[in-house]
Amino acid sequence: MNHIIILCTAILLAAAPAASQIKLDLDHLAKAAKESTEITLDASLLNMAGRFLSASKPDEAKVKSLVSNLQGIYVRSFEFDKPDQWSQSDLEPLRKQLTAPGWTRIVRHTESGKEALSAFSEIHVLREKGKPKGITIITGERKELTIVHIQGDIDLDQLGDLSGQFGIPKLPRSLNK
Amino acid sequence: MNQFEDQLRRALRPVDPPAGFVERTLALAGEPQRKRPPRRLLQFPRYAMALAASLALAVFGLQYREYQQGQQAKEQLMTALHITGSQLTQIQAKVVPANAEK
Predict the structure, then answer these.
(1) Which residue among A27, B20, B57, B94 is the one 20 to 30 A from A119 at the CA level?
(2) Domain range for B42
(3) Residues of chain A positioned with their CB less than 8 A from the CB of B94
(4) pLDDT in tens, A123-162
């Protein structure tokens, strides 16, 4: 009987997705978009990419160190021909996941046009025991939508150290605390 | 039983060799024997070389595939960091002045 309970618990634990895992199911937008970028780097691919980063080159060494603790980087970016080819309802499944315990929206910026919301930006951070374990960035305009999800032990100081490279700005240190 | 003995006798009856058998046999016996290298020794290097070449190709193929996947993963990582960077810059540009105004 004990074995059955242990087995069931193990199956349930394996089946239950971790809070840091976000499902980005936006294939329907990729079909409608003029251009789309889809990047899916899970832990094994990040590990593989890390092996191809040189530890002797300072820039690559920083990236290597940053990605060594990450479990995944997922990017979905869409550019549309016409405005309003995507709607906020397309983001509802994602937003629902971002309301799970541990997730906090730390930034929300909106710009309204004459008719409706013309642009918005959001940053959501997942914290476990006070440490960032995931970050999701959503930016949208009427003809553009970009979602970046980084999963794992994110050292925002390290991310800040990449400022100037890859267009990464200096991040406020308070985010790491 | 007699029938069986008769059959056996017929089967084992002495038969004369075909014409020229003795001459041919003697001729062959007189010929110097050609030295052939042992079959295994001749075949081993060929098979070993083919096997080694196949293995080397397979290893090279796997390594090249891994190299390509690694390079692709690295390029994707850099692109992802660029996109992340541009998103953060965009947000910072919008949020920081808004906060500064307050």
Answers:
(1) A27
(2) 2-101
(3) 109, 111, 121
(4) 999 999 888 999 999 999 999 999 999 999 987 777 766 7
Closest among A47, A54, A63 to A164, alpha carbons compared: A63
Give the gap in angstroms from C-alpha B55 to the nearest C-alpha of chain A. Answer: 24
Could you say which of A52, A139, A166 has the minimum Cβ distance to residue B82? A166
Residues B23-59: pLDDT tens digits? 888 888 887 766 666 666 556 777 888 889 999 999 9
Helices B39-101 and A58-67 cross at an angle (nearest 10°) of 90
ipTM of the complex in this document: 0.79
Type of residue numbered B78? M
Q: Mutate which of A168, A174, A175 to disrupt the B interface (most B C-beta within 10 Å)?
A: A168
Task: State how far the alpha carbon of B65 is from the alpha carbons of A52, A118, A148, B69, B74, in Å.
Answer: 13, 45, 28, 6, 14
Among candidates A109, A165, A167 on the partner chain, residue whose Cβ is nearest the Cβ of B86 = A167
What φ, ψ does residue A40 adopt, rounded to 5°? -130, 105
pLDDT score recorded for residue B23 = 86
Are the beta carbons of A126 and A132 closer than 8 angstroms?
yes
Q: Is B83 exposed, middle or buried (0-12, 13-18, 19+ CB in 10 A)?
A: buried
Q: What confidence score (pLDDT) does residue B42 get?
A: 57
pLDDT tens profile A94-112:
999 999 999 999 999 988 8
